[in-house]
């Protein structure tokens, strides 16, 4: 395996670009050495390897998508300049030849970054090639490609992220070079693993459960049903929107080559875990799902999962977790039915059981205070989870009871796209599937139109932003803002699938520019993609910043992104008073701006798969 062509070409030419912007830069391949704990070195020619981001990259006011643009798509850049007059620009190919030219559009002060801005639109140029640069008023951008396949590799890498996140199994270095490690949280690990996990003392449960498997949630080693639910749902929705494309997308995972599409094989790893979190029959809360499993106390950074010494604990069941299980299992039942009928039937039984249990216990809430050793994932409003679960069960079964639950929910006619959806706000997941997956809903046309209306609002938001992001919250940027942007783009992409109108396709492509470098920090938030790319995401085992013998996160890992609240001490001290779009730092200790999580990568996987299909 080798580095994608776009990375090879840029490594060879970055020094020349640095001269153009008057700042020197050196790019060297990352080669990690091995250590005894089971995280061996990364081969520089592996699919996971990527060029190191230099400590001092070329600084430039010309902000572009550092990965590339589709030749037949929109191509815009943002320039930081306080000039009130249009600025001359030139697009240059890899030989330095000017292939297009024009003038910028002054846009004034951008509120989210506090920067004076211009916008350059070079969409009319339809050529293709590698290592283009955009020069504006004598200042050059970082290099980028014009390539119809610009997102193909990203769609694979964003999905292949999940394999090294697996719990309870050794990660195979032949499949994930540089990321091999011993199995974490198995019976032979120091804390006894996840095969017989007791409940948190005082919760009224006297049994243990085998909750092995699943994905580690984020930078910690906890596993959370509510975050696992939305993550696996987006992977399955990725498959449902384009089964043929998903079947052709070869991922790096042990099951590759089997009869089940790779993305569903990865989804099954999490679905199996979610069903294990269900309270057994005969217990007082039978059918409910435990909210989460994680360590009794926080582990230090770095900590190999196989070396974790903390006692694992099951936390109390919650209505939100139970409905996440019901929704994800119901969706899984229909997507797995063509490949494994017995497994599909098992999932449907689990979904029905969970939904009935949630109806019997509709107000068991996970508190925000339960945050020792793992994230709280508190949620005291579960109307959206009821709506989502009923929608998935109705789509899968067509049964009247679930259809009635959908149409009688206050959320069925509410504007569920008024704010981005995430693990705490899941009604949009049900709405999107009701709009796109065949079902007998009586007012389906109105549902489909609501998606288009939501997409139109996001396009309007994009048009008002100098950096073109479909995100403009009034109170500052939220934790995981990059994922919220991606989920808004998923709504826009769904509008394209429903209508075929090019403006929605172009909107998704333009929105990706922000995540890959066209932003106030000139920062790509995806590891391995772009000359200035995030690489120090908060993680206990991808911890190269703390221990040079450990790897950075794999290629295709999304950083959470700007977060105005700055909850961690590192960001709080360094970025106090920051403008929303600038509240980010690529530091492993900045967990509030730079963590990695499965749900953020699920949104990246969904959108990058959509744009990879636009060729």
From TrEMBL:
The active site is at residues 538, 586, 595. Transmembrane segments: none annotated. The keyword Repeat does not apply. It catalyses: Endohydrolysis of (1->4)-beta-D-glucosidic linkages in cellulose, lichenin and cereal beta-D-glucans. Keywords: Carbohydrate metabolism, Cellulose degradation, Glycosidase, Hydrolase, Polysaccharide degradation. The keyword Hydrolase applies. One of its GO terms (biological process) is cellulose catabolic process. Its EC number is 3.2.1.4. It is an enzyme of class 3 (hydrolase). Residues 151-607 form the Glycoside hydrolase family domain. InterPro entries: 6-hairpin_glycosidase_sf, 6hp_glycosidase-like_sf, Cellulase_Ig-like, Glyco_hydro_9, Glyco_hydro_9_Asp/Glu_AS, Glyco_hydro_9_His_AS, Ig-like_fold, Ig_E-set. SUPFAM superfamilies: E set domains, Six-hairpin glycosidases. Belongs to the glycosyl hydrolase 9 (cellulase E) family. PANTHER family: ENDO-1,4-BETA-GLUCANASE. This is Endoglucanase.
